[in-house]
Amino acid sequence: PPAELRPVAPDDTEVRGARRCINVAVDRSVPSLEALLGRYQTHAWILAVDVDRHAEGFWTQDPPPTLAAVAAEVRRFTDAAAAVRTLSPSRVLLPLLEVDCSAVRDALSQRATAVARALLTALYAHCVSRCQRILAAYHEMWAGLQVVPQTPEELDALRAYAET
């Protein structure tokens, strides 16, 4: 015949003993969980960065950023993305539980990578625009130098244009 369970009360010795064992196990798990959390909290600033706004704001500084400043900012975010990927394995086994860190790790890494990519995209657009302006100025100068002077005044005008 099936054994019957006897009723227990919250203040029974067995219940108090089990509760004490559970509390000890939880207390032992908390430092590991807090340490894991601390590793990720050092990179929480990444989630506060708005990808598009950061890239736009970076390029609208006065004076405009130097190429070295752009490289340093891109490096800051690519380094952060790489660091986040090394914070922990996807699944961390703690004394009482298993923590799946992949979602937070991926979110931090992807945001940092997206900011770096947005900065590089903005750099590319800036370079294209600058090259187009330089090329337009070159074509304008070249057109001015293609004139074949017919008179001494036109020759003087061409020389003056070439000297400027």
TrEMBL record:
Coiled coil: none annotated. GO terms for cellular component: dynein complex. It comes from the Eukaryota. One of its GO terms (molecular function) is dynein light intermediate chain binding. GO terms for biological process: microtubule-based movement. InterPro entries: DHC (IPR026983). This is Uncharacterized protein.
